Amino acid sequence: MGDNCHHTHQEGPPDAEAVRLALADVDRRLSGQGERMTAARTRVLELLLSAGEPVKAYDLIARFGADGAPAKPPTVYRSLEFLEKQGLVHRIASISAYVACTSGTDAHAAAFLICDCCGATQEVSASLADGLDTAAASKGYVIERTTIEAHGRCAACA
Hints:
The chain is of the alpha+beta class. The protein has helices spanning about 15-30, 40-50, 55-65, 75-85, 130-140, and strands at about 90, 95-100, 110-115, 120-125, 145-150. It has a three-stranded mixed beta sheet with strand order 4-3-5, with no helix packed on it. Strands 1-2 form a two-stranded antiparallel sheet.
């Protein structure tokens, strides 16, 4: 991805203050639910928020330590699992990466538009999942997590 993309995009990662505010909000929300943000969970979410784009787990591992030292893989994977269950992070299977959630405060179905040219990824409403939930319920099935991934070209690449 990105090799055929010969232009720049307007959007970039959030600034440090926006990341700080988002982390404080998450900490308050989880505290109210009886959960806590450990240092490892906070660091993983901070890395994802700061990136402003999907990040592979091994890149998170490599960037984890403030002193440049990588984290142990189980530390990052356990943090990602917790954050995903809380609806704060989504795994995008088709590109084997994780992204901070941008559309809500509770666990929810997620839908992503993924540009195959530049790699830009945008979370959008997953209203299609409502029909899937209804169909699953009619069969006695309970869906725990839904992620819809659509590949194509963003407006800048199209």
